[in-house]
Amino acid sequence: MPAILLTPPAAEPLSLAAAKQFLRVGHDADDELIAALIASARAEIEIATRRVLITQTWRLVLHRWPAPRRIVSPVNPLRTVAAARVFDADGAPEAVATTDFLLDTASVPGVIDLSQASLPEPGRQLAGIEIDVTAGYGAAADVPAPLVQAMRLLVARAYEHRDRAEADGLSDEVAKLLAPFRLVSL
Fold first, then answer.
1. Of 138, 150, 139, which is closest to residue 179 (Cα–Cα)?
2. What is the pLDDT of residues 137-181, one digit of tens each?
3. CB-side neighbour CA atoms (13 Å) of 37
4. Which residues contact 113 (CB under 8 A, 6 or more apart)?
5. What is 13-53+140-181's CATH number, 2.30.42.10, 2.60.120.260, 1.10.3230.30, 3.40.50.300?
6. What is the pTM of this model?
7. What is the model's pLDDT at position 168?
């Protein structure tokens, strides 16, 4: 099931000022570069852990309702279901009440339980259902400290070795910080 980013994070878990302090950079000449490295580090951590750090809104697209009436969220940690729509054969959307959706937000990955919901069947065969969800730890202050530290280390390495084009992968120290947060697929 595809997940489409609708609303990106409003801020980064690591501020420019905090990154510059960690890097011991006292000038403003590299602010744009450091800001880009922060965003890149967040994205790298989100990919490695399969979790989004700051609250974001995503759209899940399904062809039909799943048979077990459960959707395992591809974006985590899952927080809310903001909206749901089913499209008829002409492509017109029909809103689906999300009040009957039961959410398991304590587990990662999060689960949307549809067993109690009255769900209309989509009229079109492809992308007949859209579910908008919010995911993430919350604001920057809510992001677990090991993930922020991993960001600092990634930013520092990228800043120090910015003349190198190839990526070396995650260092052992960063990998250890991310290990408890990684989602493993079986």
1. 150
2. 999 999 999 999 999 999 999 999 887 755 567 889 999 999 999
3. 23
4. 69, 70, 101, 102, 103, 104
5. 1.10.3230.30
6. 0.88
7. 65
